[in-house]
Amino acid sequence: MADGVLINTTQELTAPVTLTQIGLDTILYILIVIVISYILVRVFSFILRIISEKFPRYRHPVTMLIPLLKIIIYFTALYYILFALIQPDVTQLIAFFGLFGAALGLGLKDLFADIVGGIVIIFEKPYQIGDKITIGNQYGEVKDIGIRSTKLVTPGDSLVSVPNFVIFSQAVSSGNAGNVAMMVEIDLFIDPECDTGKAMNILKESVVTSKYVYISKKFPYTILLEDHPYYKRIRAKAYVNDLRNEFEFRSEVTRRAWIEFKKEGIKPPRYRIPVGEPVDSVSRS
Amino acid sequence: MAGEVSKKKEELFGYEKELELAIQAVKEDQQGKHTNVAIISEPFAGRTTLVQALAKEFPGQTTSISFNSVMTERAFISTLHEANDIVIMDNCHFLAMRKIGGFVQLDEFLKFLSTSPKIFITTWNSYSWSYLSAVKNIHEFFPTIIRLSPMDSESIKQMILSRYDQDIEYINDIATEGRKVSFSWSSVHFHLPFSKTEYRLPWPYIDLSRIFRKKKEEDVTEIIFERLRRVSAGNPGVARKIWDNSFEDPTIWVSSIQDPSYSINLSINEAYILGILLTMESIQLGDLAEIAGPEIDVEKSLYLLISNGLVVDEKGFYTIHYQALKSVIQYLELNRMVW
């Protein structure tokens, strides 16, 4: 069935298009289209990134225009190239897409899935440029959403390319969902015999007085206590004013809280639980 | 200079309506409907003038306490015990410091206030208020909240001109000024039905009036006061300072009302120090260092901020330069250092 279609469409296509029609001027035209579209993408990306950095609050909406522009520009370029090459009528277009479909089936399906994934990312927005996301085993800030892949910068400053089709098969979590502010969890572990009320108050004040914190009705903070057999966990949940300060926020709050804990006689857990050991066999450190 | 010109007896300070609201709140309290009042504004806006005018309305019934620096002692609580039934407390943002353990005095005050039959008229820096409202829910203690919103050019004009008896000569020495369309952001405060919460909505302010102007001679006054409003962002204190610097008795030139541009690009530590200065309005080095903690080199940050013309040292008290106020607020709000 598929072979029959392929044979027919190939016959239709070969009739009007001959190699003699693709002269030097056509090749030059195609090159110019490619170069111009590449320059346009670069220039628009550069301008939009500058604008987004100037106005941090609107960083995400502005940067999300970049992948959209890329798709528009590259598809327009493809359109011009196709018409320069074959100037197809309707029959030829159908034939071309038939061949295109066959090519996909033969080996380009991953590339096509990436492109479709890129379009889905742009319109469905599971994440945006500037978001902190976890995708697969990777965590980092989205630096770019390309036609084929999404580029992340990990906390270790590595650039990771994740194919766009991954969003169809794996869960993606975004820590901030398009907002510059992002919730950060900070856990501190204290000895169960310490004054937990005092410890919670110190952690609360460490959070709300941090230079990185952002608090409002929409971005509230919470302090939670969880009891474990050999330690107590105090967890602060609060929003950092810019997700790029996530780790500095954690570090600053933890450091300041522990300085106050020390002053107030609040100590870390006395018992060390070896990894993989049952809780019964904890040793006193 | 402005000080040499003879002045009228009734000098307006621009917030006469807000004064009426405060007077009404006190009268209702005296009639048995207990309330406490929070008067909130940006730096330089004239909170102190307003509460001084309020005190004059109730002679012998008020006790006024004005905080000029960060309160670290609870001695003021004993003053409150002995105070009259109307307690006016100016600059209450000095009751809290943004540091661990820095809310003790504020907690003491709120504890006293919540059990006292007296009415407390308090004034707060608007950015301190937003912060403390988010962190300590202070808005719950003050059923009456009066915000001193930015003024329009007509109000600024009335306020400035109420200071003078004589005619002022207005000169437009900038030819194109009258052709421009003025655009800026102001904010509208409103309540939703059945809700006590006050919401703030950014609102574009577009002045097209100068496009349709016909008689150039009549426009000069409007041009000058509109320019004054734009440069001061409607802040009456800033407008008055700019006017005083620009006015050469008895003449004012449009060009003398300068709008200096500030290109602010700061590190997180410098921005934090600037944010503290904006929220506290006036603070000494020692208090600033205590808030900033050991990880910030406060003196270096202050040096950079002063060098950039954003901050001034007024006899050991550091404040935002009045001309830089608009730019500082824009920068810090954009970077979510204040809200």
Would you kindly provide a written description of the structure presented here, covering whatever features stand out?
- The complex is a heterodimer of chains A (285) and B (339).
- Helix content of chain A is 49%, strand content 19%.
- Chain A is α+β, with helices and mostly antiparallel strands and 285 residues long.
- In chain A, helix 2 packs antiparallel against helix 4 and helix 7 packs across helix 8.
- The longest helix of chain A has 35 residues.
- The radius of gyration of chain A is 28 Å and the shape is elongated.
- The termini of chain A are far apart.
- Chain B has twelve helices and twelve strands.
- Chain B is globular.
- In chain B, helix 7 crosses helix 8.
- In chain B, a hairpin with a 6-residue loop joins strand 7 and strand 8.
- Chain B has three domains: 132 residues, Rossmann fold (3-Layer(aba) Sandwich); 106 residues, no CATH class; 67 residues, Winged helix-like DNA-binding domain superfamily/Winged helix DNA-binding domain (Arc Repressor Mutant, subunit A, Orthogonal Bundle), CATH 1.10.10.10.
- Chains A and B meet through helix 7 and helix 8 of A and helix 5 and helix 9 of B.
Question: What's the short story on this structure?
Answer:
By secondary structure, chain A is α+β, with helices and mostly antiparallel strands. Chain A is 49% helix and 19% strand.
